[in-house]
Amino acid sequence: MVDNNEASARGPEAHYFGRLSEGVFEIQRCGACGRHQFFPRVLCTHCGSEDLNWVTPSGRGTIYSYSVVRRKPEAGGDYNVVLVDLDENVRLMSRVEGVEPGELRIGQRVQARVAVEDGKGVLVFDLVEESHA
């Protein structure tokens, strides 16, 4: 879950959080080298170019790592924190919804979606069933 700190965001961050609040997930792609990047910045982290464009990624990715945060049930219960490698070759931190924290495994496929919490867009993931043909 990428923290939606929209109130203090400026520049590329303001664009990112604004689009999340509209229900749209976007990342940057460099027009010079063609690579994607996340978290939003004013320069390409790969080549230094200022030629950055906003694109809608596939949202599909793979769990790189995860952790289970333990809480008492009255405090909301346990939840997971995951690092996801998107197919666009960027890594981000979020959570996987709709699954018990102990059911997660490194390498599982996930799909991003924007959830609205307290009137703000939050990026979360759902597990994807892989078809074995």
Describe the structure.
The chain has one domain. Helix content is 8%, strand content 37%. The protein is globular and about 45 Å long. The N and C termini lie far apart (32 Å). The mean pLDDT is 91.
Question: Would you spell out the secondary-structure blueprint of this structure?
Answer:
Elements: H1 11-21, E1 27-30, E2 36-37, E3 52-55, E4 60-69, E5 79-86, E6 91-94, E7 109-117, E8 120-127
Antiparallel strand pairs: 1-2, 1-3, 4-5, 4-7, 5-6, 7-8
Radius of gyration: 16 Å
Q: Which structural class matches the secondary elements?
A: mainly beta
Biggest sheet, strands in spatial order?
6-5-4-7-8
Write down the domain tally: 1
Tell me the fraction of residues in β-strands, as a range.
35-45%
- The run of helices and strands is HEEEEEEEE
Count of discrete alpha- or pi-helical segments spanning 4 or more residues? 1
Question: Would you report the number of β strands?
Answer: 8
